[in-house]
Amino acid sequence: MLHPSRLLLTAALPALLFVSCATDSATRADADAGPEAKAEREASEAADLEHAIHIAELDLEKARVETEGAVSAAATRLEVARLEAQEVELSAEAFAAEREVKLDEARLALDRSAGRAKDAELELAELEAMYADEEFAEKTKELVITRGRREMEFAQRALELAQRRLERLQNVELPEKARAIETKRIEAAAAVESAERAMRVAELSRALGLAKAEKALEDARKKKADGADA
Known about the structure:
The protein is mainly alpha-helical and 230 residues long.
């Protein structure tokens, strides 16, 4: 079995022979055509090399502009995502403080309603005791007692309403707002993570694009230099 290096040499031999033959053919063609044809061909090759270098330079500049723009846009999106996440956190902190205030206000309203209901009940009992004697006119007695009972009824209804408001606040409104804020926090965190990934991709794309463009320009310049040395 042939050694791998011999196999490679055997595989490359036809290509090397072709290049050698092509070079010899070009040399013989130059010799046959004379110095003017040779000079014209060299000038054409030099112009092609200059054009290739110019194109490589433009490609490099294009890659710089495009990748810088992509990185800048990604950085802006990341900054916006982080600011929005900070706003959500501030909203969560504000809600935590607001929640306690709202609950305290609702409890205070309930306590006030309970106090008014108790006062109305006591006042009605006092009026009924006071007007129990027959010496008061019946109409006056009925008017005063009816008014007292109405005030007590209103106080009881206000107490029940305050109780329902407190329960709704504790069991519905505040939990709903808490869930909404938590959803926003999750979404904001996901947006920041996505923006960070996009930023990393943009940076890698810039590095890769510039590396390719710089290598192409380097190859074009090297090809020109090799031609000048030949």
